[in-house]
Amino acid sequence: MDCGTEGYEMRIGVTGSGGKLGRATVERLRAAGHDVMGFDLAGTPGPGFTRVDLTDFGQTLDAFLSVTARHDGLDALVHLAAIPVNGLVPDAATFHNNITVSFNALFAAHRAGIRTIVLASSITAMGFPFEEAPPSLPVDEAYTSANNTYGLGKVAEEAIAAQLARWHPDTSITALRFTNVVAEDEYATFDRATEPDYRRDLVGSWIDARDGALAVAMALSAAQPGFEVYNVAAPESGNTQPSREVAARWFPGTPAADDLGEFESLMSTRKIRERLGFAAEHDWR
Hints:
By secondary structure, the chain is an alpha/beta fold. The protein is built from seven helices and nine strands, in the order βαββαβαβαβββαβαα. It has helices at 20-31, 57-65, 91-112, 149-164, 209-221, 243-250, 270-276, and strands at 11-15, 35-40, 49-51, 76-79, 116-122, 172-178, 181-182, 207-208, 226-232. Strands 3-2-1-4-5-6-9 form a seven-stranded parallel sheet, sandwiched between helices. The chain has a two-stranded parallel ribbon with strand order 7-8. It is globular and about 55 Å long. Mean pLDDT is 96; it is low at 1-6.
């Protein structure tokens, strides 16, 4: 059964709707004609938004089932809510918060009969900050490695999602491994693109928030039963040096693909481009 959203309007819940990626996602989905309901801790309640403490399963399930004067059920869920990086709170608190929020969101969606879900995963689930070299470059979705509690949470969330996707034959859960999300007013950071170790911990990768939102929309439209993981990054790196030179300097001895593009991202975007037709619309260059 096709679980996609393309061709008709959906009521889509977005957790973390007030974040950088959340705001861009809500804007893109609404522009496409979908009825979007935002859920977050911060924000002004009103049409299209309700404050929800996602660490509370009761609140989460209640919010997904219906909210008086807001909605009476959701067709799909985009789960983006999280403490976004290590260091904002103690390390264990990062893991406990994020794994609780994600379990609550995914399990509440299951209980509420929401069968199409897009989940924000991360480059931290595949080796960030890459103090240990990945097995090959560009690093793809087959590689999983967590080196901090944020990444450990993402690995656990992907594992939970993969199992929950089996619990109903129509369930589609897509995990998008986002790299560093850059807002349209943050491009000044690329002034450092000539520095030898600029974005080394991100293997040179980045994604414009608006293109991250595009990836979410495409994942919803292409949803099929089961669990799938895609990397989400700009197809070209955030560095001025050719990718093969950067790879040799950062990861000497690590094999690079024979067909590696001149400035191709070392966080592979080949799968999402080939399977979903994803093409980023914004480039810092």
